[in-house]
Every structure is written in structure tokens, then in C-alpha cells.
């Protein structure tokens, strides 16, 4: 199958690549760029494990072709920590609040939560629950994920939340 | 000592041992996307396998033509049953003593059954190949109803054993019969029913559902022809069992099979079994000489690799008129699908279903389970519940409510009247199980006080009155459930898998600098073992948890174990960990006595050190003793500081809990809102409360999914109609209620640290609690039992049948 040339930015770096037109963005990220943080859970846009940030929007990369992402600016979980390796406040919050168990939904969940807090820095609990409803978690029952996002929101706005994980 | 010396309490706190809300060590990699799951594994020359599946529920396979598929660019080979026959692998043994087709041999017995395996250079080429495999089928009559499986003239599911009179578990009474299994005292129970004042009988169905972890089942097989060795990475909850079974099936010597379970993206029972995809990937690697990856997609996962439940339980209770239970009878039809691939301890075809007498003091009880074959996928795995315990808990907890309703008693009061009393423990149930410990009345009373049960019932009465007056269209339901689990399988006298006793193991090595590694036969799938086992070691050995690395999932390095399912890691491997620590500690004590020039008995343990009795300033810390173990051991003593323990538990453990749920049902839409859910759990000694609460949140959410919406449904033609996330309900953050957790602590008397296991309790107790709440909403209108799942359609239909829309 003839390949297409694509050019995009992934986690701040320019990437030039040849892909089959039918290659999904998630496969491109995982197989060609070796960014195995985003996961595949359903391939039907339901579970959100493959969520990445694309041009300022949360996108399920299992239902985007890599060629559609040409020219885009993409951020994956691998691009969340700072250059010096220090964790993003959301990454720290998920650990602090026990917002993960098996870790499979976590990269997509944190990437989604990042965009949610960009869109709405002071979300209510309902805002958070609705905001992450495109991302399924089978382990946590979401309660501590919600707390983690509240913790991160508070910390990002300068008022750390004192409540512990429950 | 001086003011700078930390106290015992300060030193204990610094260890981050048992009871501490230690943050998880696993999270560091997971929050950065650096977990290592099976599909993350890349090897040079990796090939991809994909499966051709049957569109029919039951059909004869007339022919398979792989010519076009084999010609697709990138396709390397196509494997069918004929290929597998050359290595005697067209069929494989199951854990339950049956055999199962790896690829369709002559006919297909359920929709999406594996028919051919296409191996290609890329996922896409493999998928192209799958499209072009041409299979000619001749449709056969289908049966997907277990209650009709043993009818005269029912379609013959298993032609290979049609005339076999005996199965793996005794005589068969029909060609679609798998097994009969009975427990308890039939004559005595029948007699109790004959003289009872009040009896109830209800067919309680626990529908077929699926554990549906977010990561599907997958593997990478790599066969080294030169060495004759197979390395198999996979989503395995029980890696050693996979190695042994793999060796028995493939005839590759067990020491030449290396099974590795890397990080697992949730299991919940789905990843216990051995599936066709694994066998095909292994054969494909042997045939091609290259590593082969197989990753199932979500539809394949939901429709083929293991289902849960599908128990149809006719449940009866006999009672005095003042509400004292006299007897329990339960007759169950268990739908095992097309092959009996149920994951149970081998001698227990219905698992531990005889926990069905629950938490109540039944003088006598009897149960009979008949397993049947249908045109549905094989399996019968746990779904966050051990060995049919959740089915049993559902039956008894629904039946108790139905009996309370008939007696006109409050369901909580009826339970309090019949719960096993604290002074009766250890308690031998009517089925012969010895419940290790419990304090049921304290738990239920605490639950009722916390939610102000009396006030809730008063509010419900007021709402019912208002409903009757036409002032509201909402019904309030209060669900009460009290469950007793049986977990920690298990004692070798009861439990084995293919003859291997269900012990588990831990091997601990303490390094000279006082750090160490612990390797175990279990395998975490999100439970946080790397964090919690280290906490047990920290408390037992007085070494900081941060200095202990926990490693699981590599059969070459870990001691043999039976894996993680059935809430067995803490009861069995947790015990093994404590016992291995105690061997190490005993040796350390001898070294300390030598160094301090006292007798062993003159020493006492103090958090992280041995000190001389009456002279606490003379001590040796465990870190010092670790160094000494490699430096100055007493004459004649072996150097080093390590131990291994294989723990054969003396009994199961019996966690319990009291759950209360409040719902509001809109009779016009059928929508049920969960207003409140309170869960009190008693799992004995609590190792990490944060992780326990997380397990309960997750288990309750899965219970919520099961009770309120999940079903793997088949139509009459054998089509599975709920095999994608479009149709199979997984709760999102929006529907999921907020959970209130609470606890009591009743340690297990036979477990070294008193722990009982927690992972599955919330599923076992949660499902009946939700169901009881929905049923309770309608109970005053005369409804006795509405079948799960309680989705809006079923609930609306129930309201319709009760004439509420007139």
C-alpha cells in the first residue's frame, strides 16, 4: 500500500514519518514512535484509554487516522512531566489520591484531565464526572480519580486541597 | 538512649508497615505511561496473529479455503484445525477436566468461535488475511437456553462426547449434561421443609456477564528452535499454572518454558484461563520460528474469552412463623456454554457454591447444581468473585428478602434474628464449612445506625403513602445485604488445580545492606501487591517498606504459586510472606544473640531490632543483622539471610460485610437513581486502608454495573447481541454513585497476620444489595422478585406489569 508523508509535533518535537493511509493514530504513536503510554482498550471510541491531546482537544486516537493528524500538535502522557523529569501536578495527584489501580486507563485519564482543567480550571464534582465520562476505568470506581483532579485543580490554582484519598 | 532516639512508635511509623496508608510504588511508572503491558512488547521479527471467527452459533464446517488469505501481501501462514492436528493440538484440555477445540474441528458450537489463525507481518495484513479466509458453513439448530438444554430432542452440542455416560465429575444424565454436584443433607432438609410454617421458592437468575478488564487478553510467544525453549509473555493471572498446562499440552519440558506476566491492565478473573489465541500464537511461533503476538479486540474479549455467572438458581427457604430459618434448598442449572472451561478448583465443578447458606444459622441445607452445554461461549470464570461465591450470595440474599416479605418482617430485622452469633464461631455451616471468625451483629447494627435505618424506613413509608395518593411517581427502595465470603483457596485437603495443591509462596532475600527482594507466585492486576507485600515484610522484619522490592510474574525467578484470583493473594501469599519473614527473623535472632553474647531467649523484639531483655540499650537492628548475616555469622551457621515459604492454608478465610443501599425509582421512565450506598467490610487485619478502600470502590462499581445493566445476551439464533461497549454496560463516572466505606476488624484466627482478603467482597455484597434495593422499591405492591439487570427497560416493564402506568 502506498504510504503518505506526514509531519506533526509530538510532545514538543517535530516528527516526519511515512504511514499507510489506513494507519490509526494510536498505532502510529505506539508502533512507530514507541510511545506506548496511550493504550488500546476498545478501538471503538468508548473507553478512552487511547486519549491524547490534539491541537488543544482531547481526542481518542483509536479513531483518528495518522494522516489526519498531519500538521497537528499532539501531547501524550509521555509529554506531561517537565523536562527535568518532575511530575505534572496531575500525575502527582493521581498517586497522592490513589486515583489508579491497574494503570491501564491512567495515561488517557490524566491526559483528559489535563485538557479538562485547561478548559475549566475550577470544576465542580459534577463537571469533573461529566468531563471524564468518555474515559472508562474498571478498577477505581472513579471516586479517587475525581479527588485527584480536584486536588490538582486546587493545587494549580494555588489552594492545595487537604483531603486524603478514601 | 537520649532525647534524639526515636521511640518505638516513631520507628514503627517510619517503616510504613501494616495499617499504613502507604502510597503505591507502582504508580510512579503508571502515571508516566511507563507501565509495561503485553502489547507494549516489541521484538525483532515480530509477527501478528488474528483470528477468523464463526458468524454462526452452531454450524457444520463444510470447508475452509485459505488460498486467497495466504496470497495477501504480508501474510505468512494460516493455521486451521488441520494444521494443529499435526502437532496434536486441535483440541486442548480445560481446567475443568473437559476438552475444548482450539480451532473449529468439524463444526462450530458458538458465535465467534475460533476457526482459523492468520499470521502476518503486521496487524493490518493479518486483518486483511482474516477477511479472505473462505469458510463454508451448514447451519445447525441452536440452543442458547440452559433450561431447555436437557429437553428431549434438544440440539446435540457436543458430538464428541454424545454417548459418553461419565464426565469429569461423575455420571451424565443427558447428552448436554456436564455434571451434577450436590452438597448438604437432602433428607434432613426435606424433612425441615415438610414441617415448616412458611416456605418460599423463587427462580433467581444471575445472568451471564463478563469481567471486561480494560486491557483485553493477549500474548507474545517466542520459540527458540535452537534451544528448544518457549518464552511466553501474556496477560496471566496465574503464570505458573499457564507454564504447567502449557507444558502438558505442548509437550515442551516445563523447565524450557518461560512464562512472564508483565503489568496487567485489570483481570477480574478474565485472565485465569488458557485460551485458543495463546495456543495458536505458540504454534505459530514454532511453525514460523519468529515471535508472534496475539491481541484480542473488545468484541472478541466480550464474546469468547470467558464469561461469568449464568446461574439459574431455584432457591427455597423454610421458616417458622416467627421468623427463624429452618432449612435452605437450592437447585441450580449452570450454563457452561459449549465446552466446560470453568475456572474452579478441579474437584469443585460448582466452585464454592455451598457457601449459599450465607451468614445465617441454618440447621440444615441442601444444594444441587447441574451443569449443561449450550451454544454459548465457554468459560465460567470469576468476575471479581471467587468460585461461584457471588452467585451463592445473590441467591441467599434475595431469598432472605423474599422470605422477610412473606413473613411481613423488616429485612434487616429478619437478618438480625438469623445471623450466626459471635459466640458460635468458629461456626460449622450446614454444608460443613468452618467459618473462621465473625461478629455479624456488631457489623449490621453499626451499618443500620450509621445510615439511620429507622429513619429511612419511616421516610420510605411516607413516600409510599404519597405514591398511593398520587403525589409522587417515585418509589424509594432500601437494599440490605449481609454477606459471608469464602476465599483464600485453598487448603490442599479441599483444593487443587489439575492435581496441584492450591498453596502459594514467597521467597525473600535480604541483602547485606538491609534492603531486599520478595518474589511471589501471585500476580497483581492492579491490586497494588508491590506496595502491600512490602508492608507485611516491613512490620515482620523491621525494615522500611521502601527498602523491599516485590517481584511477581516471572516463572523463572518466582517460587511456584497458583496465582491471583479468588481473593487469595493476601490469605495465601500474604501468609507465605509472613512465614518466610519469621524464618528470617529466627535466624537474625540467633545472629543477634551471638553478637550480643547472650542466649537467644534473653532477647526480645522491638519494632526493628532485637534488644536484651531488661537492657534495651543493648540491641542489634535488623539492618545491622543483615550485614552480620554476610559478615560474622555464628560458627557453624550458613551465611546469608533468605527464606522461602510455601503456605498451605489450614482453612479458607471468611470475610463478611453489611451493605445498605437507598434508591429512588421513577416508575414512568424505569430509571433508578442510587441515592446512597454504604458498605461496611470486615476483612480481618487491614494491611493498607487506602488500597482496601480503593478495592471496595472498584468492586462496588463493578457490582453496580452487573446489577443495573450488564448482560451477555444471546438471541434464539445464537447471536451474541451485547459484545461491544456500545451494548455492554460499563459505568462511567457520571452514573457511578459515591461510595461510603466503613469497617469492623475481626482477624482470622488461623492466618499468621489475621488478614482475610478484600478484593471481591464488594462485588459479592454489592450485587444483592443493589438488587434488593430495586426489589424493595416494588415490594409493597406485591412484587417478589425482579430479575437482574435492573436497567430502565426491565424496571419500566416491571412497573407496567404491576399496572403502575394505568
CATH superfamily of the largest domain in chain A: Beta-grasp domain
Number of helices of chain B: 19
Q: How many discrete structural domains of chain A?
A: 2
Average of the residue pLDDT scores of chain A? 95
Strand content of chain B: 15-25%
Q: What oligomeric state do these chains adopt?
A: heterodimer
Q: What is the global morphology of chain A?
A: globular
The percentage helix of chain A is: 25-40%
Whole-angstrom Rg of chain A: 16 Å
In the CATH classification, which architecture of the largest domain in chain A applies? Roll
In CATH, the homologous superfamily of the largest domain in chain B goes by the name Aldehyde oxidase/xanthine dehydrogenase, molybdopterin binding domain
Q: What is the β-strand count of chain B? A: 34
Distance between the termini of chain A: 52 Å
Name of the level-1 CATH class of the largest domain in chain B: Alpha Beta
What share of residues of chain B is helical?
Answer: 25-40%
Task: Explain how this protein is built.
The complex is a heterodimer of chains A (166) and B (806). Chain A starts with a strand and ends in a 10-residue tail after the last helix. Helices cover 31% and strands 15% of the residues of chain A. In chain A, strand 3 (51-54) and strand 4 form a beta hairpin. By secondary structure, chain A is α+β, with helices and mostly antiparallel strands. The longest helix of chain A has 14 residues, at 106-119. Chain B is of the alpha+beta class and 806 residues long. Helices cover 28% and strands 25% of the residues of chain B. A seven-stranded mixed beta sheet of chain B has the order 3-7-1-16-13-14-15, with helices on both faces. In chain B, strands 11-19-18-17-12 form a five-stranded mixed beta sheet. Classes of the chains: A alpha+beta (166), B alpha+beta (806).
Amino acid at each position: 500500500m502506498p504510504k503518505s508523508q506526514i509531519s506533526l509535533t509530538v510532545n514538543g518535537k517535530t516528527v516526519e514519518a511515512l504511514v499507510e493511509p489506513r494507519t490509526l493514530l494510536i498505532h502510529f504513536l505506539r508502533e512507530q514512535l514507541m510511545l506506548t503510554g496511550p493504550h488500546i482498550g476498545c478501538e471503538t471510541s468508548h473507553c478512552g484509554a487511547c486519549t491524547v491531546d490534539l491541537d488543544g482537544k482531547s481526542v481518542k486516537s483509536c479513531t483518528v487516522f495518522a494522516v489526519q493528524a498531519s500538521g497537528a500538535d499532539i501531547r501524550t502522557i509521555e509529554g506531561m512531566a517537565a523536562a527535568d523529569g518532575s511530575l505534572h501536578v496531575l500525575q502527582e495527584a493521581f498517586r497522592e489520591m490513589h486515583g489508579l489501580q491497574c494503570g491501564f486507563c491512567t495515561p488517557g485519564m490524566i491526559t483528559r484531565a489535563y485538557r479538562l482543567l485547561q478548559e475549566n480550571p475550577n470544576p465542580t464534582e459534577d463537571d469533573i464526572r461529566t468531563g471524564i465520562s468518555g474515559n472508562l476505568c474498571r478498577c477505581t470506581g472513579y471516586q479517587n480519580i475525581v479527588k485527584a483532579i480536584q486536588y490538582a485543580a486546587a493545587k494549580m490554582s494555588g489552594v492545595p486541597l487537604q483531603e486524603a484519598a478514601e | 538512649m537520649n532525647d534524639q532516639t526515636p521511640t518505638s512508635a516513631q520507628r514503627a511509623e517510619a517503616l510504613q508497615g501494616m495499617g499504613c496508608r502507604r502510597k503505591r510504588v507502582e504508580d510512579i511508572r503508571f502515571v508516566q505511561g511507563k507501565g509495561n503491558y503485553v502489547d507494549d512488547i516489541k521484538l525483532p521479527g515480530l509477527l501478528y496473529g488474528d483470528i477468523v471467527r464463526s458468524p454462526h452459533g452452531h454450524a457444520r464446517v463444510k470447508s475452509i479455503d485459505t488460498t486467497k488469505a495466504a496470497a495477501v501481501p504480508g501474510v505468512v501462514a494460516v493455521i486451521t484445525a488441520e494444521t494443529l492436528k499435526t502437532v496434536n493440538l486441535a483440541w486442548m484440555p480445560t481446567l475443568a477436566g473437559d476438552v475444548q477445540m482450539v480451532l473449529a474441528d468439524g463444526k462450530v458450537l458458538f458465535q465467534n468461535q475460533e476457526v482459523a489463525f492468520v499470521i502476518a507481518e503486521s496487524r493490518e495484513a493479518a486483518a486483511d488475511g482474516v477477511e479472505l479466509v473462505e469458510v463454508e458453513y451448514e447451519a445447525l439448530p441452536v440452543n442458547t437456553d440452559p433450561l431447555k438444554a436437557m429437553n428431549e430432542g434438544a440440539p446435540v452440542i457436543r458430538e464428541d462426547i454424545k454417548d459418553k455416560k461419565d464426565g469429569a465429575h461423575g455420571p451424565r444424565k443427558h447428552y448436554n449434561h456436564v455434571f451434577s454436584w450436590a452438597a448438604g443433607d437432602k433428607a434432613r432438609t426435606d424433612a425441615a421443609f415438610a414441617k415448616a410454617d412458611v416456605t418460599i421458592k423463587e427462580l433467581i437468575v444471575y445472568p451471564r456477564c463478563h469481567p471486561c478488564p480494560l486491557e483485553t487478553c493477549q500474548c507474545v510467544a517466542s520459540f527458540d528452535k535452537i534451544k528448544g525453549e518457549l518464552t511466553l509473555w501474556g496477560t496471566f493471572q496465574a503464570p505458573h499454572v499457564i507454564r504447567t498446562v502449557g507444558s502438558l499440552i505442548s509437550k515442551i519440558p516445563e523447565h524450557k518454558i518461560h512464562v512472564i506476566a508483565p503489568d496487567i491492565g485489570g483481570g477480574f478473573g478474565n485472565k485465569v484461563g488458557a485460551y485458543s489465541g495463546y495456543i495458536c500464537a505458540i504454534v505459530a511461533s514454532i511453525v514460523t520460528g519468529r515471535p508472534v503476538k496475539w491481541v484480542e479486540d473488545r468484541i472478541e474479549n466480550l464474546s469468547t474469552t470467558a464469561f461469568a455467572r449464568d446461574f439459574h438458581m431455584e432457591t427455597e427457604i423454610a421458616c417458622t412463623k416467627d421468623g427463624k430459618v429452618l432449612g435452605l434448598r437450592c437447585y441450580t442449572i449452570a450454563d457452561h456454554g459449549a465446552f466446560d472451561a470453568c475456572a474452579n478448583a478441579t474437584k469443585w465443578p460448582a466452585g464454592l457454591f455451598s457457601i449459599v447458606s450465607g451468614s445465617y444459622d441454618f440447621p440444615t441445607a441442601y444444594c444441587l447444581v447441574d451443569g449443561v452445554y449450550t451454544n454459548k461461549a465457554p468459560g465460567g470464570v470469576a468476575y471479581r468473585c471467587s468460585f461461584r461465591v457471588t452467585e451463592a450470595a445473590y441467591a441467599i440474599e434475595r431469598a432472605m428478602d423474599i422470605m422477610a416479605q412473606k413473613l411481613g418482617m423488616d429485612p434487616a430485622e429478619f437478618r438480625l434474628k438469623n445471623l450466626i452469633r459471635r459466640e458460635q464461631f468458629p461456626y460449622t455451616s450446614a454444608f460443613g464449612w468452618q467459618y473462621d471468625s465473625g461478629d455479624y451483629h456488631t457489623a449490621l447494627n453499626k451499618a443500620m445506625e450509621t445510615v439511620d435505618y429507622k429513619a429511612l424506613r419511616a421516610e420510605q413509608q411516607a413516600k409510599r403513602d404519597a405514591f398511593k395518593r398520587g403525589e409522587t411517581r417515585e418509589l424509594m427502595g432500601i437494599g440490605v445485604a449481609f454477606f459471608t465470603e469464602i476465599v483464600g483457596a485453598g487448603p490442599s485437603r479441599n483444593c487443587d488445580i489439575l492435581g496441584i495443591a492450591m498453596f502459594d509462596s514467597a521467597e525473600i532475600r535480604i541483602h547485606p545492606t538491609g534492603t531486599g527482594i520478595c518474589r511471589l507466585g501471585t500476580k497483581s492486576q492492579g491490586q497494588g501487591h508491590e506496595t502491600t507485600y512490602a508492608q507485611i515484610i516491613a512490620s515482620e522484619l523491621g525494615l522500611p517498606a521502601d527498602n523491599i522490592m516485590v517481584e511477581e510474574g516471572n516463572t523463572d525467578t518466582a517460587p511456584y504459586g497458583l496465582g491471583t484470583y479468588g481473593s487469595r493473594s493476601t490469605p495465601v501469599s500474604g501468609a507465605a510472606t509472613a512465614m518466610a519473614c519469621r524464618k528470617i527473623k529466627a535466624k537474625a535472632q540467633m545472629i543477634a544473640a551471638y553478637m550480643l553474647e547472650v542466649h537467644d531467649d534473653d532477647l526480645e523484639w522491638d519494632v526493628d531490632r532485637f534488644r536484651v531483655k531488661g537492657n534495651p540499650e543493648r540491641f542489634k537492628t535488623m539492618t545491622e543483622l543483615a550485614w552480620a548475616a554476610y559478615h560474622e555469622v555464628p560458627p557453624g551457621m550458613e551465611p546469608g539471610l533468605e527464606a522461602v515459604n510455601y503456605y498451605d492454608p489450614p482453612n479458607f478465610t471468611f470475610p463478611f460485610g453489611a451493605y445498605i443501599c437507598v434508591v429512588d425509582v421513577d416508575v414512568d421512565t424505569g430509571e433508578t437513581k442510587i441515592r446512597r450506598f454504604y458498605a461496611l467490610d470486615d476483612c480481618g487485619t487491614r494491611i493498607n486502608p487506602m488500597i482496601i478502600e480503593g478495592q471496595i470502590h472498584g468492586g462496588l462499581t463493578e457490582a453496580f454495573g452487573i446489577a443495573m445493566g450488564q448482560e451477555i445476551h444471546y438471541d434464539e439464533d445464537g447471536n451474541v447481541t451485547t459484545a461491544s461497549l456500545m451494548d455492554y454496560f460499563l459505568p462511567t463516572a457520571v452514573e457511578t454513585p459515591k461510595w461510603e466505606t466503613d469497617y469492623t476488624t475481626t482477624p482470622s484466627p488461623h492466618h499468621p497476620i489475621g488478614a482475610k482478603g478484600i478484593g471481591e467482597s464488594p462485588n459479592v455484597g454489592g450485587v444483592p444489595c443493589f438488587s434488593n434495593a430495586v426489589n424493595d422499591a416494588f415490594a409493597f405492591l406485591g412484587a417478589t422478585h425482579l430479575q437482574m439487570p435492573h436497567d430502565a427497560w426491565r424496571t419500566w416493564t416491571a412497573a407496567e406489569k404491576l399496572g403502575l402506568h394505568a
